[in-house]
Amino acid sequence: MSTEIRNLEPKPLWNKFADLNSVPRPSKKEAKVIAFMMEFGEKLGLETLKDKVGNVIIKKPATAGMEDRKAIVMQSHLDMVCQKNADTDFDFDTQGIDMIIDGDWVKGNGTTLGADNGLGVATIMAVLESTDIPHPALEALFTIDEETGMTGAIGLEGGLLDGEILLNLDTEEDDEIDIGCAGGVDVTARRTYEEEEVPEGTVAYRITVKGLQGGHSGMEIHCGFGNANKIMNRLLFDGFENFGLRISEINGGGLRNAIPRESFATVVVDKVHHDAFALEFNQLAHEIKKELKVKEPNLVITAESVEAPEAVMELGVQEGITRALYAAHNGVYRMSASMDDLVETSNNIARVVVKDGKVKISCLTRSSVESSKLDLANALRASFELAGCEVEFSGSYPGWTPNVNSPILKVLETKYEELFDEKPGVVACHAGLECGILGQNYPDMDMISFGPTIKGAHSPDERASISSAQKYWKFVLEILKNIPKK
Question: Which one of the listed residues 30, 79, 172, 344 is annotated catalytic?
Answer without folding.
Answer: 79
